[in-house]
Amino acid sequence: MVTYRVQTGLERLLTSSNNLQNILKGKRIGLLCNQASVDSNLRHAKDLIDSIGNIICLFSPQHGLYSTQQDNMIETSHGVETLESGKNIPVFSLYEKSRAPSLEQLCQIDVLIVDIQDVGTRVYTFIWTLLLSMKACAKAGIKVVVLDRPNPIGGEKIEGNMLNMEYSSFVGMAPIPMRHGLTIGELALFLKNFFNLDLELDVISMQGWHRRMLFPQTNLPWIWPSPNMPTFATALVYPGQVLFEGTNISEGRGTTRPFEVFGAPFLNIQAIAKKINASGLKGFFLRTQLFVPTFHKWHGKTCVGFQLHVTEPDIFEPYLFTLTFLSAVTVLHKNDFAWKQPPYEYEFKKLPFDIISGHKIIRNAVEAGASAKEIKQIWQDEQKEYREIINSFLLY
Hints:
Rossmann fold; Aspartate Aminotransferase, domain 1; 13 helices
């Protein structure tokens, strides 16, 4: 695999001419970040930016500044962080009673810098924390600067149906597909336009990143952005495997390979594997795996399932794979399989699977035992329209 030297928005800010750094001159800075907000030498953005500016406070997304909270709807309290300079500053959690910065918090700063690592999937909540922060800053008259980072699963492939806005939630607030194909900077530009925000927004782009790149090719270090996103391999399967969160099948939480490992005590893995092998899907290998989750679904019980090994990332379709898998499960295990009931990510009425997938039509297809070809047809026309819409926001 060919590797490149990608320079993130953070590194471009730090090594740039005075034109970029003038954005920060004399400004009180807030920084939305977490533990993955590092440069190629593993130094954290909070200390690097504070060395050229004046950081007043930090904002942290779901799971907390150091990604300590494991699960959904486990909130993180506000705190205090000590910078390398010895300065103590407040950390405002954006996954607490409110998921947006308050006017009182924003009144302390002149500019909000955003440096968070997305994973290229609609339901990953960091991008919606970005949106809520942008909306709050627009109301408060605060400038937003997004330091761009790679989409770890590439910027060419797009997969899945668009979110129907009737199913809007904290795991989806704009009509984008499950695998959206954008960097977080491109998403910021798209979201500003879609919501018609009166916001001063700058995106500091990367250097050396190309849309075909997968994360290992960037030569950047992988720091897990959330507790159950430990590796790039996790991110590669996540656009599909996250669907298990809306079911009674374990998505591998409580193991060392979440989302790659999955299963349940009731699965007939031979019958399921036979259906998957006949589906025509390619680019992966399903290896039989038994596991006992140390927490979460089926805690302490032996689950029968698989580890999903991606052998050809260029042709593997994670969303289609998991939907096809679930379609087989609903046919073979009508009495044991179940959809998870609310609440899920602050939605207390709609089925979690419906807000994750973005439309009940997806669940209906799965329940009908639809084939991979039939499922894929659901979003063919939508994807063409989406590509046309996002074209004007692409930076690379």
